[in-house]
Amino acid sequence: MGERIEGQLQTAVRVAKLLMLYLSHGPALGVRDAARLLNIHPSISQRLFASLASTGMLVKDSATGKYVLGKWVADLGALVAGSHSLRLLVEPYMMRIRDLTGETITLHERWGDNRRISHVIEGVHEVRQIPAVGACRPLLSGSSGKVMMAYLEPKETERIINEVHWPYKTPAGLTISREAFLDDLKRIRTQGYAITQGESVSGVTGASAPILGARGFAVASLTVSGPAFRCTPQFLQRYVPALLVAASEISTLIGGSELYGKQEMHCHKS
């Protein structure tokens, strides 16, 4: 009986290690590659893949014979991304960026067609940006919203854009044309981050990087922001590399994949 339980535990550990390989060697793995990386016999590797495929956690690509993560795993990642656990995971990274910049760091999560401020680490200066936790703002304005829009699933980005009556007026009163907005998204995808001035809140400048879920699309964004007189785009630009590293590390923690970045969008005229 004891040997049977021990064998089941060993199998569970192997399954976990196999799934973790996708973080470092994904997005597709073959039976022999996994066997080599896990130092197990190919027949054992084959059984592990077959078991996971039978549950829908993995899907076999008939063209290559390799296995990719199934939607089930993506759903688990989304569950983590949308829960209190995301805030707990992100806080050390937010503190690190706050200590580096001295400015306010904000976690925004997607909330339908909006974004919700779910966590804030205030800056150290007497005059600072203090967003309200729980407040919802549009995805269409501000660095936090635009960087998520740029990295949503393309059909979702298309849908949101096509439902807007253009030109769009931001909460701070700026007017943005459809063409200018699409140009902004293209630039954000190229560079991997967004910097905006006074779009959501007058007199505030922010820089944001996307946090990606298991399917490679944005589920949240990490933002550094402050008063425009101190947080110029040039000032924020200095800290973009650290912001991108933090967002990338968080994405990896929640099972996220590489930046979607290269896909072109085709939005129909409304």
Can you walk through the features of this model?
By secondary structure, the chain is an alpha+beta fold. The chain has 10 helices and 11 strands. It has helices spanning 2-25, 31-38, 42-55, 71-81, 84-101, 142-150, 154-162, 178-191, 233-237, 240-253, and strands at residues 28-29, 58-60, 67-69, 104-111, 114-121, 136-138, 168-169, 175-176, 194-197, 204-212, 218-227. It has a 6-stranded antiparallel beta sheet, sandwiched between helices. Strands 1-3-2 form a 3-stranded antiparallel beta sheet. β4 (104-111) and β5 (114-121) form a beta hairpin. It is elongated, with a radius of gyration of 21 Å. The model is unreliable at 260-270 (pLDDT under 50).
Rg, rounded, reads 21 Å
Count of individual helical segments: 10
Terminal Cα span: 67 Å
Could you tell me the strand content as a percent range? Answer: 15-25%
Question: Architecture of the largest domain, according to CATH?
Answer: 2-Layer Sandwich
| CATH class descriptor of the largest domain | Alpha Beta
Give the biggest beta sheet. Answer: 6 strands, antiparallel
Q: Give the class from helix and strand content and strand pairing.
A: alpha+beta
